[in-house]
Amino acid sequence: MTRTIRIGTRGSKLALAQTGIIAQQLTDAGQQVEIVKVTTPGDRSHAPIAEIGVGVFTSALREALAADDIDVAVHSYKDLPTAAEPGLVIAAVPPRADPRDALVARDGLTLGELPPGAKVGTGSPRRMAQLRALGLGLVVVPIRGNIDTRMGKVFDGELDAVVLAQAGLDRVGRSEVVTETLDPIQMLPAPAQGALAIECRADDVDIEHLLQSTVDDEATRLAVAAERAMLAALEAGCSAPVGALAEVVEDIETDADGNDVYVQKISLRGNAAAQFDADSAEMVRASAIAAMTDAERLGKELAAELLDLGAGALSGPGRDPR
Ligand SMILES: NCc1[nH]cc(CCC(=O)O)c1CC(=O)O
Predict the structure, then answer these.
(1) 266-298 burial string, b = 16+ CB within 10 Å, else e?
(2) Which of 40, 97, 110, 138 could bridge across to 167 with cysteines, CB 3.0–4.6 Å?
(3) What are the backbone angles phi and psi of residue 290, rounded to the nearest 5°?
(4) Distance between Cα 3 and ligand 1 center (Å)
(5) Domain that holds residue 174
(6) pLDDT tens profile 77-117
(7) Which residues line ligand 1 (CB under 6 A)?
(8) 219 in Cβ contact with 267 (< 8 Å)
(9) Of ligand 1's atoms, which has the minimum distance to the CA of residue 189?
(10) ipTM for the assembly
(11) 289 and 229 in one domain?
């Protein structure tokens, strides 16, 4: 392609690091790129994310894309609303970074070593609900801000610990502050955590094909499709108390001749707070496995199971009390 590709990004350290990865891949593929910073309302406001609403970090990038101010938008996939954006397509999903959550605690402590009453900071309803559900007597303190601001509250003694995405810390080069990478059995990550969504205009077929052939990773795309189908079927947005993790696993099947053969499948774990409000301490959990080609159906089925188990039963916009 002879034109210079304008890649839009938020100006945060994390967003710039993520955009840098994609810019490098396109440059390696022989393309000319230019990085364009876009300020989002999410960057300007200090209100809790749950109050400013879904898509605060992504809508300004999407507007810039639709207005032809940029050609490609690089998003943290977990920040994107589940509804498709008319006129835009997610052309590629690059290989996923570590999807897990990470604990940054004082004195090198792990989650299990934090004493009852320890103050743990997070602004995410999903992390809050799971921390409470552990039953460790932790005091969850709502916080927000960029990675440096949140970690700073542990280093200055205001909090005993904070929970952050491992991928974010890895990408800004601060992995050394992590005192425990949380096993998904303790804390299921947000749907699409650690994954990026590379978006372009739907009518920009040249860019779409270029992105598909240079940065897309099929296993990540399918895993994220399963997780987000589950989230969407729960009618829950990106700040909902819902965790999901899909992984490609090997399974043994018997073929027509009676031989054992290895096949790749997609496994999905999901959980949700029983109450979609700030105080929920009860979680429902489920898991299932399906063929790679059934990723989205797997997500929908797991959501149905979680709803049967009582996910979000007591609150949430547009849901019948049940
Ligand atoms: N909601 C903010 C946000 N969006 C993406 C990441 C981290 C990187 C990722 O999950 O891909 C973070 C920070 C965090 O949750 O600690």
Answers:
(1) bbbbbbbbbbbeeebbebbbbebebebebbbeb
(2) 97
(3) -155, 170
(4) 31
(5) 101-181
(6) 999 999 999 999 999 999 999 999 999 999 999 999 999 99
(7) 76, 78-79, 164-165, 167-168, 193-194
(8) no
(9) 10
(10) 0.96
(11) yes
